[in-house]
Fold:
Amino acid sequence: MINTSTDLYCVLGWPVGHSKSPLIHNRAFADQKINAVYLAFEPRDIGSAVESVRTLQIKGASVTIPFKESVMTHLDWIDEEALGIGAVNTLVNKNGKLLGYNTDSKAAVDPLKPFGIKDKTVCIIGAGGAAKAVAYGIWKHQGRLVITNRTVQKGRDLADRFQGRFVLPQDLKSLDPDIVINTTSLGMEPDIDQMAYPARLLKPGMVVMDAVYTPLNTGLISAAREKGCDVIDGLSMFIAQGAAQFRLWTGIEPDLEILRKTVLENR
Ligand code: NAP
Structure:
């Protein structure tokens, strides 16, 4: 029941109409019997939004496109990993001080750990916000990083930053990666026929991860399954980054399976 003691959490982004974060966090609060509610806001200006978080004593916030970088100048403290990535996706309000974290990197890297990352050739497609978080995690775990991206300079800059190399999209055939990770929006609804990585280059034994989770079975994930690759879908990453946010806010580990089911039931 919502009353005067209810704590407020939210997502700050624009647009956020598609966001599944309210679904998973409200489900986790309900399951844990925590008197809190999680809402979605679409501020035009992140500075004013952060001031509102302080004024209204909002306990925590997810930060998404396009504010993950611009939010950083408005915070009191940022943890080392978020600084290394150069983006914040989580705010924690600790007694009026706003702390910034990034849970995207760990969410991408954790499902890859069983396959091994050290000395593996990891091809990241994309050089945007998600790519930065994933590249940081691969670099930290000593993977051999290869970046490919439509905008060449952005791709080269990201590769340089994390001691990787850049490959032009048309030269991917010269590569034989162990792990392929799509961090672009290619394959996302409504353009589900777009492929971030050519299906003909997929081989059995490769690990293929897609950050896109609408649809759950992207063209890349389906093609990878058909070719006998190990696949990790975008919903796994989404649930993991959300669960890490919930842990930062409450200290409690939510049930990942219940959160996944909640998203699948509310598609
Ligand atoms: P972003 O910062 O806007 O980056 C977008 C990336 O996609 C850039 O590398 C861009 O290339 C590339 N791209 C976009 N349209 C393209 C096209 N038509 N052809 C080739 N490349 C194209 O966005 P982001 O925050 O990194 O998010 C990217 C995707 O990851 C989104 O689908 C998002 O929903 C998903 N995501 C998922 C999770 C999760 O938890 N599962 C977390 C974060 C993001 P250019 O540099 O050439 O523009």
Summary: The domain at 106-232 is CATH 3.40.50.720 (Rossmann fold). The chain has two domains: 7-102+237-265, 106-232. The pocket of NAP is lined by residues 65, 104, 126-131, 149-151, 154, 183-186, 188, 211-213, 234, 237-238, 241 (CB under 6 Å). Residues 234-250 form the longest helix (17 residues).
